[in-house]
Amino acid sequence: MTAPDDRMLTETGLTPAGRGRVLVIGCGALAHEILALKRANGWHHLDLACLPAIWHNHPERIAPGIREAVTRHRAAYDKILVAYADCGTGGDLARTCAELGVEMIEGPHCYAFFDGLDAFAARAGDEITAFYLTDFLARQFDAFVWRPLGLDRHPELTETYFGNYDRLVFLAQTDDPALDARARDCARRLGLAYERRATGYGDLARFLQERA
Q1: Where are the domains of the chain?
Q2: Under 8 Å between Cβ of 151 and 145
Q3: Among 102, 135, 140, 177, which is least packed by CB within 10 angstroms?
C-alpha cells in the first residue's frame, strides 16, 4: 500500500484494508513502523487501523476509541492486537483491552517500548529531565508541540514550558540524516542539548513478531 500521509495519520487515522486475518489497531504515530515491519516480514495476513495520532494530546479519547474500533472490526478478523502503550490513559486502556479480550503492548508510552522497556527503565533516573522525540514526532513537531503550546505565537514561553528539561533525546527508528537534522533543529528551538539514540523498532517489533 502507498505510505500514509503524516497529516492524515495525525488528524484522522487510518482505515484498514479489510483483507487480512489479523488486525492491528494502533496509534497513527506508529503507522509507518508497523507497515515497515509488515513489509519486512511478509505479513500479508495483517491489516492496520489507526486512531488519530493527535489523540496523544487528548489521552482521554484513546480507550473509548479502541473500544469503538474493536467492536466495529471484531467480526471481520480472527485476532485483534492493540499497538498502544498506556499513553497517558492512567490504566483505562489496559482495563478496556482486558474487558474486550484483546492484547496490547506493554509500557507507559511509545518512547519506552521503542527504547526497550528494560533499557528505558534502567535510564529513568538519569533522564528525568529529558524530552523525547520519535521519527514521527520529529516530522510532526509543529503539530504536536510547537503550535499546541502556542510557541508559534509566543516563543518567549519556551523557557516556561521547557526550562526544567536539559536535553532532547531523539529515539530514531530509522537512519535518516534529514530527519536527524530536523530533530536537532527541534532541540535548538527548545534550547536543549541534543542526543540521538538509534532504537530501531524496539519492543514493538517483538510484540508483533510473537503475535502476528
Answers
A1: 6-108+201-211, 111-198
A2: yes
A3: 177
Q: Going residue by residue through the chain (212 aa), what tens digit of pLDDT does each one get?
A: 567 999 999 999 999 988 889 999 999 999 999 999 999 999 999 999 999 999 999 999 999 999 999 999 999 999 999 999 999 999 999 999 999 999 999 999 999 999 999 999 999 889 999 999 999 999 999 999 999 999 999 999 999 999 999 999 999 999 999 999 999 999 999 999 999 999 999 999 999 999 98
Residues 123 and 133: their CA atoms lie apart, in Å, by 16
**Cell numbers describing residue 79:** 485476532
C-beta of residue 126 within 8 angstroms of C-beta of residue 119: no
Q: What is the edge-to-edge ordering of all strands in the sheet holding 22-27?
A: 46-51, 22-27, 79-83, 103-104
User: Among 136, 93, 139, which Cα is nearest to 111's?
Assistant: 136
